[in-house]
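Revision sheet: C-alpha cells.
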Amino acid sequence: MKQIAEFIELIRKICEDRFTKLETLMKNITAKNMDQKTKMHAGDGKQELVITREFDLPLGLLFKAYTDHSIVAQWMGTKVLKLENKKHGGYQFETTDPQGNVVFRANGTIHEFVPNQKIIRTFEMDHTPFGVQLEIYEFEQLTDNTSKLNMHVIYESVAQRDQLLQLPFAQNLNMAHNRIQEILKLNTLK
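Predicted:
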C-alpha cells in the first residue's frame, strides 16, 4: 500500500510539474503573440498616423527590407512588380489568388530617397475607398545591431484614416514588421 501511495504521489508531482511548465510556456507564447512591438499613435482629429518600431537589426539591413525586391516580397507576401529606389521612381505590388485573380494592388511614386535614412512616397491601393496617402519613412541607427523605423502617414482626411483603423491594420503591420525581423535574422545566420 505504501508503494502505491508513493507511486501516486510521484505521478502527481510529475504531472504538476509538467502542467506548470505547460502553463508557463502557454503564457510566454500568448505574451509573444500579443506583444505589439510596432507602436501606433493616432491623434484625435488628425489625419495622420505616427508609427514606430525598433528592430534587432543593423540600420543597413532594416533599410534593405524596404528597398530589396526579394525581401519586400517575402515580408509583404506579395509580388513586387516594380521598385525603383530613386527620386521620382515608382513601385507596384500585386497579390493574386490561386486562380490568378488580382486581390490586391498598390502603387506609388517615390519623392525622396536617401539611402539608410529616408524614403518619402505616395501609396495608393487600387479598388479601395482609401485614396492616396503620403508615407514618410525615417530610418535611425540605435546601436551597431539595432535600429528604429519612424513612419509618418498622412491621409486625405481624418475619416479616411479612421476608416483604415477600423480594419486590423495595427495588428497586420506588427505582424509584417515581425516578419522583417525574422526573415533578416535568418538571412544573417546563413
